Amino acid sequence: MLSIAPSLRLVLEDSEFAPSGQPAWTTERALDFAHHKGVEAEIPAVLQALAGAMERAPYPWFAKRLGVLWTMFMVGRSVDDRDLTVWMAEAANLLCDLPHDIVAFAIDEAIRKSPHGFIPSVGEIRRHADPLAAERRQHIERLERMKAALEDGAATAARSQRRAQQDAHRRDMARFEK
Questions:
Q1: pLDDT digits (tens, 9 = 90+) for 82-109
Q2: pTM of the model as a whole
Q3: Lower CB count within 10 Å: N or C terminus of the chain?
Q4: What is residue 56's three-state secondary structure?
Q5: Residue 170 is part of which domain span?
Q6: Is residue 146 one of the residues assigned to a domain?
């Protein structure tokens, strides 16, 4: 599954230290943190990688993966081929909206954590996949906002001026602490 560097992942997460009454995540606060961590320049590339990773699994992959699951869990049971076809079609239909890497991971997790020893249900697979897909969508949305802010000339100039003032203030404060 696609992963994000820890320093950039922190930039995308809600802040538990947001000032009272302010949102837990803002574009400018995230950009300042990314600048501080030295990952601001990585934003467009990570956005492109995450957006590309939203590609859904192709149907032939579902047919192969779900066919293996069926075979693995139905060993020794007499099963009609029509049951397999119906189950695979319905499972693929209910899972096909998920990104390929996330649905593959979720199927594996559902098998690993299956408490009953039977083929995992679509619900069990989605229980693992849905939070990951929602998190990825949120990360993409936030990266898009950050990229747009970086491309906005007026906002970038204001951000640079604010950062210069903050740096000057820190330098002034450091002189008084000595």
A1: 887 888 889 999 999 999 999 999 999 9
A2: 0.83
A3: C
A4: strand
A5: 6-53+138-177
A6: yes
